[in-house]
Design goal:
single chain
Length: about 90
Amino acid sequence: MTALFQQGWARGVSLATAITLMLLVTLFPLPLTMADGSPISHSVLMLIMWGLSAGFVHGVGFVPHNRILRVLLGAVVAWALMGVGLVFYLRYFF
C-alpha cells in the first residue's frame, strides 16, 4: 500500500490539495468559524495545519527516514487532515 502513495499521481493530489487549502485559509478564512461566528477550536485548526504541512511534505517528494515521521507526514494522514479543513469550506458554501 505504501508504494501506491509514492506514485506521481498521489504526490500531485497531495500538492494540489495543499496549495488549494493554503490559498483558501490565507485568502478566505471566514469558513473556519462555527455557525454562530465564533472561531473553530485551536485543536481543530492545528490538525488542519498539520494536514496542510504533511500535504506539502508528501507532495514535494520528501520521505523522512524516521518511521514515525514517515507516518505522521505521509499521504494518508495528510489527506485525512486536509479533508477536515475542506469539510469546513464545503459546509460554508453548501
